[in-house]
Inverse folding.
């Protein structure tokens, strides 16, 4: 296999060419489906194989973020007679969505459609959370307001979202108005990887089906009583659209905990972060201090109260995660030094006994 023969149709980007040049004998594939410990990979021979982690990979690290996820490019081996291919290693990720510090949602995504439905009570704070995850991942977010057929004032909703999330494209769609789906085309470009994210029941799988032009993804009807979807997509699945884009469907996640997503948070709330720098005191708590730029902006309405509270909540979460990570790092280093000094003591003893 060589770089030229690699099917770019599965979203290969020049970012990875160095791998093929330095390791021309490698077998490389993309993870297109992930369900628990089992993977489906798309190989450069345009074959789909079932794959699992090699022993080497599973024991090489305890960091769950280092394991393959849907969208990853991986190096694999496949011995004739084996039932499954073995994933040997994960190539460096161009972009990466992860939640908490324990799970990669999707890797090497270009654009994220953050789907929120116009019928359920729209939750602007939840959008802050999705957008923070997205900025952190380095993919481009697009907000898709779905099911606008169920809502009389979708334009008001769009305006409200746009005002709160300046600079993010907001597209209003309904499966019952197929022409609305055409707006998505500007992001569904050949070789682009687009992920569908959002709570269960907002219409992600239905959208995937509509864009694929057939029933490929399992969808769920909504129960009238609690507005929750009945069937949930349990796996993460990649579809190749006729136009050449790669579309990933993901299950709605009950928890969307942030990890140490500091960059993402600062991007999502860049105006607030900037404002805080012009407080009179550099350690301003933005409570009762004189010369507090945040308080002034809240009083004048320049910064929305709800958005400020949303920021504080997410910031607490990120700080907490960072502290946990720092603690783990400290512990790791402590153990490393413990081991080094123990090894040293053993060697000194051996030397004294004339064993080396
Ligand atoms: N009225 C209306 N219902 C929709 C629309 N899109 C999806 N649905 C319904 O919403 C329910 C949940 O859809 P599904 O695609 O499974 O949501 P997912 O959990 O996000 O994948 C299903 O009953 C769909 O038929 C839409 O544009 N309009
Ligand atoms: Mg679904
Ligand atoms: Zn302040």
């Amino acid at each position: 296999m060589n770089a030229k023969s690699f099917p770019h149709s599965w979203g290969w980007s020049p970012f990875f060419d160095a791998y093929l040049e330095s390791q021309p004998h490698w077998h490389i594939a993309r993870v297109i489906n992930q369900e628990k410990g089992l993977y489906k990979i798309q190989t450069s021979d345009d074959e789909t194989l079932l794959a699992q982690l090699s022993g080497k990979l599973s024991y090489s690290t305890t960091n769950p973020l280092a394991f393959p996820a849907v969208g990853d490019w991986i190096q694999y081996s496949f011995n004739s007679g084996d039932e499954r291919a073995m994933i040997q290693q994960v190539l460096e990720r161009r972009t990466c969505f992860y939640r908490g510090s324990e799970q990669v949602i999707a890797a090497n995504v270009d654009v994220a459609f953050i789907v929120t439905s116009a019928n359920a009570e729209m939750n602007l704070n939840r959008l802050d959370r999705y957008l923070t995850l997205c900025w952190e991942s380095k993919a481009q977010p697009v907000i898709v307001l779905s099911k606008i057929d169920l809502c009389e004032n979708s334009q008001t909703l769009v305006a409200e979202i746009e005002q709160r999330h300046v600079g993010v494209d907001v597209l209003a769609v309904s499966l019952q108005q197929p022409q609305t789906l055409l707006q998505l085309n500007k992001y569904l470009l050949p070789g682009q990887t687009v992920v569908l994210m959002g709570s269960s029941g907002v219409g992600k799988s239905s959208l995937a089906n509509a864009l694929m032009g057939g029933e490929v993804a399992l969808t769920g009807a909504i129960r009238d009583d609690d507005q929750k979807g009945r069937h949930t997509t349990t796996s993460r699945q990649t579809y190749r659209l006729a136009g050449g884009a790669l579309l990933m469907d993901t299950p709605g996640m009950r928890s969307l905990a942030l990890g140490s997503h500091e960059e993402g948070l600062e991007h999502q709330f860049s105006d607030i972060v900037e404002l805080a720098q012009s407080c009179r005191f550099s350690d301003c708590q933005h409570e009762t201090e004189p010369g507090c730029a945040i308080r002034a902006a809240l009083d004048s309405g320049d910064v929305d109260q709800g958005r400020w509270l949303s920021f504080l909540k997410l910031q607490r979460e990120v700080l907490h995660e960072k502290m946990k990570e720092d603690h783990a790092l400290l512990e790791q280093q402590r153990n490393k030094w413990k081991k080094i000094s123990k090894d040293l003591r053993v060697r000194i003893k051996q030397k004294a006994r004339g064993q080396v």
Residues 1-5, 222-230 have pLDDT under 50 and may be disordered. The radius of gyration is 24 Å. The pocket of guanosine-5'-diphosphate (ligand 1) is lined by residues 146-147, 149-150, 174-176, 200-206, 219-222, 229, 232-233, 252 (CB under 6 Å). Residues 305-352 form the longest helix (48 residues).
